[in-house]
Design brief:
The complex is a heterotrimer of chains A (448), B (520) and C (125). Chain A is an alpha/beta fold. Helix content of chain A is 36%, strand content 13%. Helices cover 21% and strands 37% of the residues of chain C. Classes of the chains: A alpha/beta (448), B alpha/beta (520), C alpha+beta (125).
Chain lengths: 448, 520, 125
Amino acid sequence: MRYLPLTDDDRRTMLAGIGVQNIDDLFADIPDDVRLKELVDLPRHASELEVERQLGAMAARNTAASSVPFFVGCGAYKHHVPASVDHLIQRSEFLTAYTPYQPEISQGTLQYLFEFQTQVAMLTGMEVANASMYDGSTACGEAVLMAQRLTRRTNAVLSGSLHPQYRDVVVMLSDMSETPLKALSADPEGTEDIIASIDDDTACVVVQTPDVFGRVHDLSKIAAAAHEKGALLIAVVTEVISLGALKPPGEMGADIVVAEGQSIGVGLNFGGPYVGLLATRQKYLRQMPGRVCGETVDANGKRGFVLTLSTREQHIRREKATSNICTNSGLCSLAFTIHLSLLGEAGLMKLARINHANAIALADALTGINSVEILTPSFFNEFTIRVPGKGAAVIESLAEKGVLGGVPASRLVPGQKDLDDLIIVAATEVNTPQDREVYVKALTEVLS
Amino acid sequence: MSMNKAGRPTSAQSGQKSDHPTFTGNKALQIEEPLIFEVGETGKTGVDLPEPEPHETRLGGLERQNIGLPGLTEPEVMRHYVRISQKNFAIDAGVYPLGSCTMKHNGRLNEKMARLPGFGDVHPLQPESTVQGALELIDTLAAWLLEMTGMAGVAMSPKAGAHGEFCGMAAIKSAQIAKGDARSVVLVPESAHGTNPATAALLGYKVRDIPAREDGTVSPEAVKEALDSDVAGIMLTNPNTCGLFERDIVAIADAVHEAGAYFYCDGANFNAIVGKARPGDLGVDCMHINLHKTFSTPHGGGGPGSGPVVFSEAIAPYAPVPYVVRNGDMFSLVESVDAAEGAKPFGRQTAFHGQMGMFVRALSYMMSHGSDGMRQASEDAVLNANYIRAGLRDVMSQPFGDQVCMHEVLFDDSFLKDTGVTTLDFAKAMIDEGFHPMTMYFPLVVHGAMLIEPTESESKAALDQFIATLRDLVQGARDGDLVRFTGAPHHAPMARLDETRAAREPVLRWNPEAPAEAAE
Amino acid sequence: MAEIKYTDDHEYLNIEGDVATVGITKHAQEQLGDVVFVELPDVGKTVAKGDEAAVVESVKAAAEVYAPVSGEVIEANGDLEGNPGLVNEDPEGGAWFMKIKIADKSELEGMMDADGYAKFVAEQG
């Protein structure tokens, strides 16, 4: 077995050194009647080649995003990741280290977490950020809990244009903790009046921009209305590249910003692992969940970094912790940080312009088809179209023609009939003019 | 006030300075590296992008003017991250015996498999017809986990151990509410991971502590005493955080079930018993499996993890969405509560379908090891821990006497009494010797705890050197060689860091306006 | 004439008339290590004996400070917010946490004096 260094001789010598007869003497505390006598009913060990064959066969049954004209978004986006990112994150020193509990021999991890926190704060226009959450949706749930602690109120108001699966996460948390919640219904036309839902019991208002249908929102008025009632504004961003083009939530009055960071450095991975971003104001620091890294000095006076404010965390506060969270998304936050260091402000803003330009070109091309209507006058790199018939069937027919054309809104919100003819379409820098042409041709054929 | 005596000094003491300072501050391969913000420039970029065609904008008048982020070219970025990486200890570099963390070798085949375009480059919301292999992989891993644990159902989406704990306890809560038997208290032994009480509290439960008996395990009598009709369940780690198998676990499970409560097993230490015992045979109702521990997905400096949860028949119907359904050779996803036929999911815990990248790695690990290799791995992990115990039992002290342990061995600090050396000093001196310290000051119930988990990945030669080193350190402490300890580490990239300063005046980001030291 | 009492939760009460100035003992701060944060109750809040009234955090530990007597919080020590290290420097002087207007003086019965507390600490080892 290629992963197990002990030889049978070693094992015999070691058992003798311990003073037991055989290996089962070390398992004597497991009651005899529940101790497995036989191997479990699974295949025996396999060579690298054999495993590659089997997993390779499964992988081959999937359509990779790079292999087709690809326009799927809704919280996960196909972007090009520079080769150096994946190379660096596979360095043993990053890949096979644990949480940096021994700062003297973990400065690599701690320094990139500090850089990550700084980048996230700058990107979102906030003062401080934590060292990452599992993903955007769970960060959203944690932000609502954080707002509840800060305001000592329970009611959250969720915009109907919040990603429906993010909404489901918050709804589940509120169900399980038996706290009230107001979730507005899906709003593809952008007509909801969320301000009317804010009252004196509101802990927070949760608004996504660009929203799940792609529409861009100015949050300033909502922030002012929330603050007037003593509530907090949580801004959600699922496409973090948009922050290279759009005014950040921090400049529009958001108190907590959560985002999915997958677009920078991480890749699609069929939904995970991703990296959740959570940023807030300095004054709310002590209610911020998750790990944070802070600057300090060592005994020689040299600058260094440590995990800090850990008394908020579960391993010290136990049932009084701000969250039960322990694991973060370390390696994905490293990928994020490296990719963003490569981009810099200049690269990110240009990348954002390319995304926006491609989306405009695609929107114009698709609405050139007679029966297709666009619902989102403002957008970044994603928009919603209405097609005759069922969006899900159209997407399926497009897939048969080798085009992954977007997400049918009905997949995310199965219950709401007026969404059945909507498709949410994303365009990024990976799409070529040819991809666009293929899409328009295929959609024209499907609809005719 | 409540007292916590699990003490360690947390401010920096004067460390030994280098005898021969260099002009640069560098020490050969250890090169000082500023923050990326101090190296980069805002106009610079390391990504070549075409200038987009001139176009109008449709951003609703919300254009951003600047961000302030510096950029770097590829060679600069490579150098920056390679340099800082060299300040990290890692499993690939040396023994990393961090108790309760299972720092085993991360097979590189697993990395390769996760990067196959068919897994790494598929979108979670592609049509199901285009991701059949991805769904097959999830279904296959689920089947392997069920077989290894002897349980009835599994939720794959939880993102890490604590997320899995929430999943299991939420399913238990839902099952009891569905029966019209909502309950308010969860039993948690004092030695539990902090995530257990934190999870229970997040679900609105009150936590009732269970004391351990003298040998470090939980007695069925103590559990029975704490059980009443308010108790929803017990959260018990097995093997426990003292490195011991809870030998009365079946009796505990019976008592819990008799009281109408359920048994949540924290599976953090599953690596000790894979292929040796199945939670399903022990009376467990839910258990999360840390794929990043037991099944070797890399820890990556703190994440990402993955924490699938297995369920008994009674709890399985309440597992969250999404889940994969197999129909012959075809697979489909159940993504909403309303679409769940014959089940009552408690809801959704995360967007999309879980940590696919971790699933691929874990299945690659499991297939590589197979039923025989996984059992052998657990046996070797337990053998290695006991070998360390046997090698150190005459010079270090065990809080519950010298007894067989599972995959980790626990010592306390009584062997350091009157030496002037603390557990922390002892651990820091290990750094100088080229070892990562063990887990310290956990579990909280043991004074100055040192929890050593070698895993199955260590060779006998590595263990022998580890044991010899610790014996030498013990001797050094007894001989009064204090400098070796209190100033340690002497040879690490950094001396001890001032955690007090970091917490009193938190500086959590680089600040462009002012020097970082003066920033708030 | 001020009178100082101690609880077995390692709080002290400096009693003047019907006002108790409450803080944590020198021994308690030694156990906690470097204090980095103190959360104080709102002035005007009424606490019952045994309620969590404040939180004190060091780098490695967090502890609740329980109200040793029932009554109204009439003052909280704002100095601690900016300078939590004062708890280590002057625990039984400048680093008091709060002043409570004692509702029921009989609650003071059974508390230790300085000698009794010293003995109590010594016994705890």
